[in-house]
Amino acid sequence: MSMATTDPRAAGPAPFVPQAYRVEEVTRELADTVSLRLAPLDGARPDFRPGQFNMLWAFGVGEAAISISDVETDGSFVHTVRAVGAVSGALAGLEVGTRVGLRGPFGTGWRVAEARGADVVVVAGGLGLAPLRPAIQALLADRARYGRVAILVGARSPETLLYPEALAPWQRRPDVEVLVTVDHAGADWAGRVGVVPGLVPRAAFDADDCVALVCGPEVMMRFTVAALRHAGVAAERIHVSMERNMKCAVGWCGHCQFGPAFVCKDGPVMRYDAIADLFSIPEV
Amino acid sequence: MEPEPRARTTALIDRRGLQALIEALADEGYRVVGPTRRDDAIVYDDLADLDDLPAGWTEHQEAGRYRLVARDDQALFGYAVGPHAWKRFLHPPVETLWTAQRDEHGLTFRSPEPAEERFAFLGVRACELQAIAIQDRVFLEGPHVDAGYGARRREAFIVAVNCGEAGGTCFCVSMQTGPRAESGFDLALTELLEADRHDFLVEVGSPAGAALLERLPHRKAGGADHRAADAVVARTASRMGRELETQGLKALLQDNPEHPRWDDVAERCLTCGNCTMVCPTCFCTTVEDHSDLAGTRAERVRLWDSCFTLDFSYLHGGSVRQSPRSRYRQWMTHKLASWIDQFGTSGCVGCGRCITWCPTGIDITEEAAVIRATAPQRRDP
Ligand SMILES: Cc1cc2nc3c(=O)[nH]c(=O)nc-3n(C[C@H](O)[C@H](O)[C@H](O)COP(=O)(O)OP(=O)(O)OC[C@H]3O[C@@H](n4cnc5c(N)ncnc54)[C@H](O)[C@@H]3O)c2cc1C
Ligand code: SF4
Ligand code: SF4
Ligand code: FES
To answer: Is residue A91 assigned to a domain?
Structure first.
C-alpha cells in the first residue's frame, strides 16, 4: 500500500550513518575529563546552535551523546568528555590523529537571541558548563544587546572546576558577574564553598525581566530552578538542558523519553514551564 | 460515522481465487507472508500456497493464555491475532545500520545495500493496519526518515482481512481501529463461509489492488454478498473480549503518576518485556557494536528493546526508572497518553496481544479501568 509521505530516498544521508572526523587536538581538562577538537575528514563542519550535541562514535566501542562545548574558526568541533564508562572512556583516551565517527548536531539549542534586551542568568553545575560555553560566548560576542549578565558556576571541588582559562577572562570583564562555588574545598581555597543554587540570591538580575539558562546534574537543576522561581523568575523564562539515555538521537529508539518529550529532538534544552509537572515526579 | 456503503470496487473470489492471489503475488516478485500454524500458535511466515493457512483453527485467548482449538468448519481466517505482528518485517528485530572500514587512509562508513525484498502481507487485520499507520508516523513523519523502513513500507502489498472472529482479549471497537479495515490496504477480504459456499468478498483499496484483482478468477459481488460481509463484521464487533473507556484517558493517566495502582501492578509485573515485544506499535530499539579482531571492520546493529529493562533508562550514576512500578507506568502512560502528544494518536490499537502474552495476565484494560474508578483527582479532558 503506497503512502502519501515524502520519498525517503530524497531525505539525504541516513541520520544513523556517521561522518568521519579526525582528532586534531586533545586537551586535558580534569583528571577524568578531556576536550577533543575534531575536524571533518571530508567537507565542512555542519552549522550548530549552542546547546546542541553530537553523537560521537569510538571505533568498535560505541556511541555517546556529547555536547558541543566550542567551535574553532578552522571548522572543527570541540567536545568535552568525562570518562565514566566504556564509550566515554574510549573517547577520552583518543590520541591526536585518530578517526572517530560523528553525527549531528542534534536537538534544540539555548535560545540566546530571545534573551536580547533582558538580563541573563547562566547557571552551570560541573560538566554542565560544557554546553553552556558556546551560549556564553554568543552572549559576550553581542554583549551590548543584553542587560546584566550573571554566570554562576559550581563544581564539586576546586580541582574539578571546568575551563578555568575561560572563566578568568569572563571574571575580569566589568560587564559580567561571575560567581563560582565548590561543594568541598581544602584550606587553600579562597573562594566560596556551597552548592550552586545558593548563588542565585547573590547574583544581580531583574527577576521580572531575565532569562535563565541552567545545565548540570538533575538534582542541581531542580534546586536551581526552585531558587530562581523563589526569586520571582517566571517558569517560561527558565531553560534547562535535560539528560536521558540516548541511542539514536532522532526520535526512533525511545530511550530518551521524558513524559511526552523525546529529549533528543524536543530537547535537550527545554523550557521549564513545559516540563514543570514532570520535573518533580521521581523516575519519569 | 457509517462507512460509505460501497464506494469501493468489489468482487467475489473463492478458494481457487485466493490460491491464485498468492501465486500472482509470488509471480510479481513479492515474498508472500501470512498466518500459518507453528509451535501451537498462529504466526506470520512465508506462504507458498493456500494449504499453509491455518484452515480450521481458531484460538482461545485470555489474560496470560493462548490455546489453539480446532474449529468445526474450514475457515481460513477464523482466528484473531497471534504473537507476531507485521512490524517484524517492516521494522525487523535485528537490522544492520552500517558497517565501518578503517585503514591507514581513513575511516569509511557504508549503509547496507537496500534489501531487494518486497513483501506482500496476506491477512492484515484492521487493528494491524492502524498499527502500521502508527509506525509510519514514528519512522517516516518526523524530522528524519528511516529509509530502510520507508523502502520496505513503500514496496509492501497489503491484503487485509476483516475479522470474522473476535479474540478473547480484543478491544478494537473501543480503540476505533476495527474490526473492519477502512483504509491502508491494496485489497481487503471478508471470508464468507456458509453451508453451501466458501467465498471471499474482495474490496479494492488501490490501483495496484485493482490490477491484481484483474489477474484472479473472480465474479461480480451482489447485494447479498455485501450484506453477508457486513454481517460478519457486525457480529465480530459485538463479540469483543475486552473494552477500554478512552474518554479522558490521557488526562487520567498523566494526572495520576502517583496512583497506588502502579504499586499494585508492579507486584505482578515481572518486567519481562513480553508485552512490548508482541505489541504491534512498540518501536523502541537499542544498538550494538561489533568489530573484528584486527580492528579494521566494525558494524552497528539495531535491535528491538523494551522499556521494561533496567538498562533502558541507564544514565551514569544509575537508571532513571529503577522500580518496576515506574517502568510499567512508563509503558502504559506512553501507550495510552503521551503517544497522543507525540504522534497525534493513541499508541494502542486494541489488539489484545499484551494481555494474552503477559505471563502473569496483566490486562491493560483492567489497569486503566481500576485507575479510572479509584483516581483521586480528575481533570477535564
Ligand atoms: C544531550 C546530552 C549531552 C551530553 N553531553 C555530554 C558532554 O558534553 N560530555 C560528557 O562527558 N558527557 C555528556 N553526556 C553524557 C554522556 O552521553 C554519557 O556519559 C555517556 O553516554 C556514557 O556512556 P559510556 O558508555 O561511557 O558509559 P556507560 O556507563 O558504560 O553507559 C552505557 C550506555 O548507557 C548510556 N548512558 C550512560 N550514561 C548516560 C548519560 N549520562 N546520558 C545519556 N546516556 C547515557 C549510553 O547509551 C551508553 O552507551 C551527555 C548526554 C546527553 C544526553
Ligand atoms: S498495548 Fe496491547 S492491546 Fe494495545 S496495541 Fe499494544 S499489544 Fe495491542
Ligand atoms: S506487563 Fe506482563 S508482559 Fe509486560 S513486562 Fe510486565 S509481566 Fe511482562
Ligand atoms: S535518543 Fe532515540 S528517541 Fe531520542
So the answer is: yes
pLDDT in tens, A249-266: 999 999 999 999 999 999
Q: Find out whether B298 and B289 touch, Cβ atoms under 8 Å.
A: yes
Does residue A124 sit in the same domain as residue A140? yes
What residues in chain A have per-residue pLDDT under 70?
Answer: 1-13
Domain interval for residue A101 = 8-106
Q: Is there a single domain that holds both residue A121 and residue A218?
A: yes
Based on the domain organization, do A75 and A134 belong to the same domain? Answer: no
Q: Where are the domains of chain B?
A: 10-237, 249-374
**CA distance linking residue B12 with residue B230, whole number of Å:** 14
Residues A23 and A48 in one domain: yes
Give A208 to chain B, closest Cα distance, Å: 30
Chain B nearest CA to A147, separation (Å): 35
Which residues in chain B land under pLDDT 50? Answer: 1-4, 381
Give the ipTM.
0.93
Q: Do B142 and A265 touch (CB under 8 A)?
A: yes
Give tens-digit pLDDT for B194-206. Answer: 999 999 999 999 9
Judge if the beta carbon of residue B271 lies within 6 A of ligand 3. Answer: yes
pLDDT tens digits, one per residue of B245-255: 999 999 999 99
Test B138 with A251 for CB contact under 8 angstroms. Answer: yes
